Amino acid sequence: VALTYYYNFLQHYGFIEKAPRIFIRPRLRIAAKQNAKISTCPKYLTPKLRNLLYKQADSLRDEILLRTGAELGLRSSENLGLRLSDQTINRTVYPGLLSLFGDMEAEPGKESFDYYLSFAFVKGAESYGVSRVLKIHRSLLAKMKRYYDHNRPESKEECLFLNESHNAFGEAISKSKGTAVFRYVKEKVLQLQADGLVEGDIQKIHPEHRYHILRHSFGTDLWYDTFTELGGKPASINKMTDINLNVWDVVSERMGHSKTGQGVSTVTRGYVQSCDIRQQLLNDEECA
Questions:
Q1: What's the whole-model pTM score?
Q2: How big is the CA angle at 211 (ends 267 and 75), to the nearest 5 degrees?
Q3: pLDDT tens across 62-82, in order?
Q4: Burial class (CB in 10 A: 0-12, 13-18, 19+), 124
Q5: 257: phi then psi, degrees, rounded to nearest 5
Q6: CB contact at 8 A, 133 and 119
Q7: CA angle 219-223-228, nearest 5°?
Q8: CB 143 within 8 A of CB 71
Q9: Cα separation, 178 vs 181, whole angstroms
C-alpha cells in the first residue's frame, strides 16, 4: 500500500509517466509475512566517520579514492574518468587534471574547479547515467596534484590513479579499486571501534557499508545544503515544495541522474529520505 501511494505521488507530480501496479503474488504471501529482516545499515556517514576512514588509508592514492566518492559523488568505476590531458568532446575542449593543476596555481583565490566527467566513464550510461561536471574543491585538487607529483608511478596512462602492485605496476587501476580500498579501511575501523580505540562520539561504521555509501552521503549533503541555501527550512525538507522541485534539478544534474526514465526519481528521492538520518546521526555525535 505504501509503495502504491508513493508511485502515485510520483506520477501526480510528473516524475514518472505511469505508476506501476504493485502486488504480492498469492504463492509468496506467506513468505512476505514471515520476512521480518530489517536492515540496520544507515545510508549516511558523518564527516567525522569519513575523516576516520581517510586516516586509515595506507597511501595518498587510497585516501583520494575515498575522498572522490565522498566529495565528488563518484562511483568506484568512475574514478577511471579522472584523466590527465584535456578532452575534446563534440568539438568542445574540456580541461584535464593537468590543466586544472595549472589553474589552481594561477588563481590562488579560487576554491572550486570544474572537471567534465565524460559519458564514457559513467556507470549506467546506457540507462539513466549521464555526463556531468564535477566541482573539485581546491583542497582535494591539491591532494591530487601532490599524488601526481610525488607518488604516482611513471607512466603514459591517462588515468590519474595507477596500480602499484608488481604484476600491474603503472597500469590504470581496476573499476573495483575504490570498492577494495573502502572494504580494507572499513575492516580497520570496525576493529578500532570494537577495541574502544575511537572517540565515543563518532558514528559506528556498519559491516554492510560499501564504497557506494560515500556517494550516497555526498548526495544527501548536497540535497540538504542546496535546500537550505535556497531558503528551505530543515523541518520541511521531506515535503514537496517549489524549493524541493528546484533542488531536485540541481541534485540530479550534480549526481549525473537523467531526468527522464523509469526509476530515476526513486534514486534521487533516496537523498531526501536520508536527510532525516543525517540529522539524527549528527545530533547523536553532538550530544555525545
A1: 0.84
A2: 55
A3: 999 999 999 999 999 999 999
A4: middle
A5: -90, 130
A6: no
A7: 150
A8: no
A9: 5
